Amino acid sequence: MKARIILILTAALMGGSGHAQNQEATDSLTRQLQEVVVTAKQPATKLVGSTLVSTIPGTNLADLGTALDVLAQLPMIKVDDATVNVIGKSNIEIFIDGRPMRDNQELQQLLSSNLKKVELLMAPGAAYASTTGAVLKITTRRNFTEGLSVTDQFQLQRRRKWSVMDYLSLSYRAHAWEFFANVTINHNNSLNRGTTTNTLLFNGEKTVVGSSQNSSTPTTVGVIKGGFNYSKGSQSFGAYYRYNPERGDFNNSGTEWIDDNPAVRREINKHIRAHSHLASLYYENRFAEKYLLHFDGDFRRSNEKNDVATTYPHSTDQDVNANDRRTSTLWAGKLYLNFPLGNGEFTVGTQDSHTRTSLDYRMLNSSVSEYIPSSLTDARQTSAALFASWSGMLGKFSLGAGARYEYVDYDFKVDGRRDENVSRRDHLLTPDISVGYSFDDESQISLSYKMATVKPPYSQLTGALNYTGLHQIEGGNPALHDEHAHDVQLFGMWKGFMLQADYTRTLDTYAFVKQVYPAANLQLLMHPVNIDVSALSLYLVWNRAVGRWTPNVTAGVYRQWLTLGDTRYEKPIFSYYFDNMFALPHGWLITANINGRSRGDMHTNRFGATWFTMDASVGKTFLNKSLTIKLSATDIFNTANNDWTMNTYGVFVDKKQSYDRRGISLNVIYNFHPRKSTYKGTSASEAEMKRL
What angle do CA 473, 476, 480 make, to 5 degrees? Predict the structure, then answer.
């Protein structure tokens, strides 16, 4: 029997050896038969309901280096430096082995060789917060090797300044127990240049207010993390603690001017001191062979201190000094039960949290304090949610439905007094439904509807104002309402082609505007306000390997319908992405990713065109894949920009800025007995963590 199995699987491997890469990704299940490892083959990416599933083992993706490198080559996923985005989606949640990613560096620390599969949920159900636009679930490969495992990653980057990162991870496994600890030190030194020009009518006359920026932000971030896992039989539990200190010194050297008057030199120095504590635990038990009980608990506390000094050398303008102290606390718990029901699975659970954030802002300049006063704001929120969802297969049809009920008690205080106009209690019910049909293994289609309620970040709800220049102020808006959105999505796949069409109708989302602020002199205020907007996005993707070349081509358009005052923001944005991976002899891998976009509107911004931006890398593994060396280049032709204009409430803003993206980096990864963490905890309240 064993010989028959080996013969069949060997024939399958030999017969598929000349097929395209994304038709022959290795299944994560490997069987060892008399010391011979046999691996079965599956398509690299397929559509299951409304979920894109990509298998990694057995493909060239496994040798790219890190999880970030893999994600950059997958359909519908884009990576800009360490930031992961899903095309056409916002509010992305990322999970690694069932637990949410709480630090962007986790993807850089996760080796590509340890990835099992990547699932992209384009229509997340009620088990996730209604704020979630898409979910990225990463599953790592199981490794039962006992003893000590060591991984070290070193990155040296040169843009206009040097940056360096080192990550050291230790883990020890003994039978059912695993103990782990890791340390990360990341020193990043980024630069930004640009100008801002504001044109408006003031006292009946055309007035121009402008400023230039040349900023440097050297920041050092550390992470110390340690914990344990226990897994035996049907039960598992674990916990970890993470401490995250941060120090940064921001410097902005520029000028300010009004009309044709001589420009005034300005220096802004900001000292950042912050740290946070996070404790997390989980418990999981599978009983009666079909019931899965899971619990997560989280506690997080963070403190941040910012001291800002603005000076005007060679000018009679007064210096402006301010400081702020920010604290936030989170208690959260999540409990759910999963079991088979009908031809699918049913999940029911509760998710509860209590958060508190406070901002103590002190304006130390007496003349400026007349229009930017000191303030103490305190926001507390208690939320309790119940959710239930079902998903399953009926023949070639996939069905899913769910609902989430949430009670929210929000209390907002300014200088110790409750603001009755902002404080509120809400009862929220958000349903979702999806249906899919599978024609065959390479042809599927799905249609989904989701209603969502999105709470603004706490940083945008503050009533404090910040001094940014002689004539410019930035601030939040405590009167912001919750966003209510309706989303209909069509997703289809035919062989190597994918089509995504998404229509959203959003009420009371927030967008930034600039307007004249009432003060004794001319002041322009940038702050968020609620708007209603409808949008349609359409993207076509082609992903099919051609010999040693694996291209991933995406072309799309985004069009919105928004009117604010007398201004319409309806110019469409056309975009494209052309990602390439080349598997050369002797284990060499080359990537070349190109993208561009046209000029167009998104919310109240009209973004400038960037038609051609290119990143590339070359890498190779050594020492039986224990050592990986990769050289990368970003924004090779220095064409990336984030220029935009805005026309709100009689103020026309023209902002031109150049980020510090062009550069090269060297990555060296060494691992000894590499293996994945068995931590199975998930976030008790990921949405609330994002708002802190």
Answer: 140
